[in-house]
Structures are given as structure tokens and as C-alpha cells.
Design a protein that fits this description.
The protein has helices spanning about 10-20, 25-35, 40-50, 60-70. The model has no long low-confidence stretch (mean pLDDT about 80). It has a domain at about 25-70. By secondary structure, the protein is mainly alpha-helical. Helices cover about 60% and strands about 0% of the residues.
Length: about 70
């Protein structure tokens, strides 16, 4: 819309910032959580937690641990 001259750059940035600052999640997320039997707190914790190793299979965790133990930097 900016290239077509329908919207100024400043207005587009303002609209984008307003959209990003919204704190309400989309309606589809609630349906997904309900279908997956996941609470909102569990979902937020999983998304915000940088440690995703809790989802790795047991053998993969062991292999990664061994790899990093014996790898020389």
C-alpha cells in the first residue's frame, strides 16, 4: 500500500506497532488449546521457555549429553 501511494510510511509503521502491541491472542489459539487439552499457562510457558529439551526423546537427550561431554572446543 505504501508503494501504491495509498498509505504513508509513518502511518504504516504506526499501524504495525499497534498490531504488535495487542495483548489479546487470536480466537483460533483458544480452539487449538481446547482441542489439544493444553492450558493457556502451559502454552505460554512452552512458548516463552527457551529450553525445549523437555520435548526431546530420552535417547536423543542422552546422545546430546554424550556429544557435548566428549566434544573438544
Amino acid at each position: 500500500m505504501i508503494r501504491q501511494g495509498l498509505l504513508k510510511r509513518e502511518d504504516a509503521l504506526r499501524m504495525e506497532e499497534e498490531e504488535l502491541n495487542k495483548k489479546n491472542p487470536p480466537v483460533e489459539l483458544f480452539k487449538y488449546l481446547k482441542d489439544s487439552y493444553i492450558t493457556s499457562e502451559e502454552y505460554s510457558g512452552a512458548v516463552l521457555d527457551s529450553n525445549n529439551s523437555q520435548y526431546e526423546p530420552k535417547y536423543q537427550k542422552m546422545a546430546r549429553s554424550l556429544y557435548h561431554r566428549f566434544r573438544k572446543y
